[in-house]
Design goal:
Rossmann fold; alpha/beta; single chain; binds 2-deoxy-2-amino glucitol-6-phosphate; Glutamine Phosphoribosylpyrophosphate, subunit 1, domain 1; 3 domains; eight-stranded antiparallel beta sheet; seven-stranded antiparallel beta sheet
Amino acid sequence: MCGIVGYIGEADVKEILLKGLEKLEYRGYDSAGIAVLNDEGVVVFKEKGRIADLRDVVDEEVDAKLGIGHTRWATHGVPNQLNAHPHQSTTQRFTLVHNGVIENYHLMKKAYLSNVEMASDTDTEVIVQLIEKFSQDGLSTIDALRKTLHLIHGSYALALLDKEDPNTIYVAKNKSPLLVGLGEGFNVVASDAMAMLQVTEQYVELHDQEIVIVHKDSVEIQKLDGSIVERPAYKAELDMSDIEKGTYPHYMLKEMDEQPAVIRKIIQAYQNEQDELTIDANILDALHHADRLYIIAAGTSYHAGLIGKQYFEKIAGIPVEVHISSEFGYNMPLLSAKPLFLFITQSGETADSRQVLVKIKEQGYPTITMTNVPGSTLSREADHTLLLHAGPEIAVASTKAYVAQVAVLMVTASAYAQAQGKTLDFDVVKELGIAANAVQTIVDSKEEMEEIATEFLATTRNAFFIGRNVDFYVSLEGALKLKEISYIQAEGFAGGELKHGTIALIEDGTPIFALATQQAVSLNIRGNVKEVVARGANPCIIAMEGLEEEGDRFVLPKVHELFSPLVAVVPLQLISYYAALHRECDVDKPRNLAKSVTVE
Ligand code: AGP
């Protein structure tokens, strides 16, 4: 989703901004732009498409030490050069980049800007035109910005240049993520620390409704009322090598390969000195005092939440509801007497999940965020955080974060059960280790996965994924992976549900991926496969060792049944990857998608 960078200092700003934007490419975008300010004024370069396209239009001759940049994921107005950021006010005095959505921009336009001819279809342009209007009314730039922020409703992270002040970047934030980075003789602005890691590791987080005045050797944070805020910087714990592809052709392939190491890292991170798995005592306490756990998440994280429900109910004996975040906030169910909320979010920035967190906090209920990004918005705002320890996930399609989510859910449920004095009939550390080895075997079987992708998905328009029990939830995730990166229409179903309607879609050769990892329903799922084969489907059965039958296409190394989601998802990820490659899709940056969905 949209990204922001800014720099003020002594270096050539164009290259720093372009490199920063390249680091944000993974978030998904459809156009990009930069604006640089020097003594002669502001120069804006913007282009539809990739950063490489933007590079082609940037004039190398322009020399500037101050500038802002943006990657746009269209919300208001089609993705084109005109709607790309930065946007300028009519006189071109003010130049702005913005992430987020201004909900009342129509009202603002009508109330204050009826005589202004807009150059774009964006809500963002309204912000910069309002600033210009209030400045023409006699306000200083900071006061014009402040007045504008008081009037607009919605989410924003923004960076503003004033042509008449070539020593300042004005920054403001509400609901959308934004950081200020500190350097020697320079300072930077970034929606994600990754963008500016090339120049600094020191960052100051910004809170909602704060304004920052950024000079090259000072940074002043103010609240909207003008009062000064002091906040120490923190070191971004990111390793550049973690965010480079190395010799891999795609981040997704690298991240799938990292999955065994991620499981092992989680074991280490959650092990105490006695080698027992344990979690924060405050989280154990929160679980102890809850009568029901509400898991709130979106997309892949929601699919991990469905597995989490099984773990918390079966292992820890806590009743669980799992909800899609974009629905929950606007259609809240009747809550139990002592609810506890668990937000699962790889990025920690998903706006749909955050709107629920804000509402839940207003009601005073306890909250936990399970995330891969320490210091992310949902992590900061929840009472407690459970970290995934998966390392930066750059590919839009989530793979290692899903496996990490399932593993941390298992660790949490079993640590809680043991803290309550329950004896488990399995050794979590040992079973996670076995699962890590099994995942290794699968990622080492890439040729076979590629063959399956060719055999089943080379020409198909659609595909179905079925499973029962936890295999059903893994099927949902398998279908999501395939559709998001290969654009093949794919749906996941509970094995027994197909015959209640969807079986009408089965034609000669329709691929059906069936998971058979659960002994109790093994015969049932095989019955479901027979139903679709009788109607012409082409079945690809992936079975757990010990449950396999002749004709199965792939046998998963044996793991404990409860741990099978960690393993069964991996062939589905790899098959999707190769299907997307064969179709020449942009695997890491699929069309229309964003890595971190920061608008509702
Ligand atoms: C998964 O491959 C997708 N990129 C998407 O469904 C993602 O899981 C969803 O947007 C939620 O993101 P989060 O975990 O960062 O909150």
